[in-house]
Specification:
By secondary structure, this protein is an alpha/beta fold. 28% of the residues lie in helices and 21% in strands. The chain has eleven helices and 19 strands. Strands 8-7-6-5-4-3-2-9 form an eight-stranded parallel β-sheet. The longest helix has 18 residues. The chain binds pyridoxal-5'-phosphate. The site of pyridoxal-5'-phosphate has 13 residues, from α9 and β9.
Length: 401
């Protein structure tokens, strides 16, 4: 371990989850794919905060979630044809199905297990990605109807995913809503009954373009990310800090890092941090990124290395072991995940899912399995309440150590 620490602010996660639970009228599937967007074990927290089911991509992820939250429905939607569907069916994990090949594999696994598989038929609405192509949808529904009669599968859901929901005025949204309604009608015409329908993810839920269905699959929003940039109620859920390894003074003209991309133009102090692109700090942010130390923003200088970056701390000579904030909630002037995404020319999702295994993850703000203590509410030292945290729910800030 490098000494770097990724703190997951459980209170923020719960507040975001509670906001979506309210916004969706309780029809909230928490999407915890990619290790919960890099946050680790948070299934219990989101369920306690109002999520009624959990969605992930692979069967392996679904089984891990099942172990931590045994009584909560789990859906796994992206698996190769030879995935371990039998174990999934035995564990009563719902499986999304984008093709007749996968449907057949699930059906065979259910037959081996002597169970009925719960499946969600997935229709592609225009991304040309996951989900059945519109021209194969009717055949998929027919095949599922036949397997329902054999008792190996039961269709419990029909799902779609929108391509342009972060732009609510895009005419593609209306086309995809219509395609989805038609797909649902086709499923009924082919004899399927009693399934739920789900269309909206974070952007479609915030902007409302995916409303009108039984379930909302929310990932990014739980972690404070709004792809539509139209909402100001979500709060950041992560802080990344690292200890200074060594410091040194250099003269004007010193080159820093590979290729001497950066040459200092004055004598200055440098601090070395044990975090690099292998830990998820995007190399593309070289010469743009900043960190915060002793309450001030400082520039990261030179090309990012695999394992380390160098910070120009000006007249401040830091102490070895002193803590530097790489990103945080932004309430005290520190950079945010959104800042890092901008510096690297990417999206926040890629930053939060990219933090590597050398970084220790800690969960703070609530004991696992318990609501946050009422006395942890915090006011900023200058007396302002933190406006970024004002959400529909009355919630508490975790104590900042
Ligand atoms: C990732 C994903 C979601 C969640 O999307 P967010 O924008 O993160 O809320 C929902 N549905 C599917 C099929 C996904 O792959």
């Amino acid at each position: 371990m490098s000494g770097a620490e990724l703190r997951v602010h459980d209170d923020a996660l719960r507040a975001n989850t509670a906001w979506f639970a309210e916004r969706t009228g309780g029809r909230l599937m928490a999407v915890l794919k990619a290790d919960a967007f890099g946050h680790g074990a948070v299934a219990r927290s989101v369920v306690e905060a109002g999520a009624t089911s959990i969605g992930v991509t692979s069967v392996a992820e679904a089984l891990a979630v099942r172990a931590s939250t045994p009584d909560v429905p789990v859906l796994s939607w992206l698996n190769p044809v030879d995935a371990d569907f039998e174990t999934a069916v035995r564990a009563e994990i719902d499986l999304a199905v984008p093709s007749t090949e996968i449907l057949d594999a699930v059906s065979r696994a259910a037959a081996r297990a002597g169970r009925t598989a719960r499946v969600h038929l997935h229709v592609d609405l225009g991304m040309s990605r996951d989900g059945a192509a519109p021209d194969s949808w009717a055949a998929l529904c027919t095949a599922a109807t036949l397997l329902e009669r054999h008792g190996t599968v039961r269709v419990v859901g029909v799902m779609g995913h929108m391509s342009c929901a972060d732009r609510p005025d895009d005419p593609q949204n209306a086309r995809e809503r219509l395609l989805f309604s038609n797909a649902v009608r086709t499923a009924r015409r082919r004899g399927l009954r009693g399934f739920t329908t789900h269309l909206a993810a974070t952007a479609a839920t915030i902007t409302g373009v995916g409303d009108g269905h039984d379930l909302h699959r929310i990932g990014a929003g739980l972690f404070g990310i709004d792809p539509s940039s139209t909402s100001d109620v979500l709060v950041p859920t992560l802080s990344l800090t690292a200890p200074v390894v060594v410091t040194r003074m250099v003269r004007a003209g010193a080159g820093i890092g590979y290729g001497h991309d950066h040459v200092v133009d004055r004598a200055t102090n440098l601090a070395l941090l044990p975090l690099g692109y292998a830990d998820g700090l995007p190399r593309a942010a070289s010469e743009r990124a900043e960190v915060q130390v002793r309450g001030r923003r400082r520039r990261v200088v030179g090309r990012f290395s695999m394992d380390m970056i160098v910070v120009d701390t000006g007249d401040d000579r830091l102490h070895p072991g002193e803590t530097v904030t790489v990103f945080g909630r932004g309430a005290e002037g520190e950079p945010t995940v959104a800042d890092w995404a901008r510096w690297a020319g990417t999206i926040e999702h890629e930053i939060v899912t990219g933090i590597g295994p050398r970084v220790t993850r800690t969960h703070c703000g609530a004991e696992p399995g318990h609501a946050p203590a009422a006395d942890t509410r915090e006011t900023d030292s200058d007396g302002d309440t933190d406006t970024a945290t004002a959400t529909a729910t009355d919630r508490q800030e975790p104590a900042r150590a």
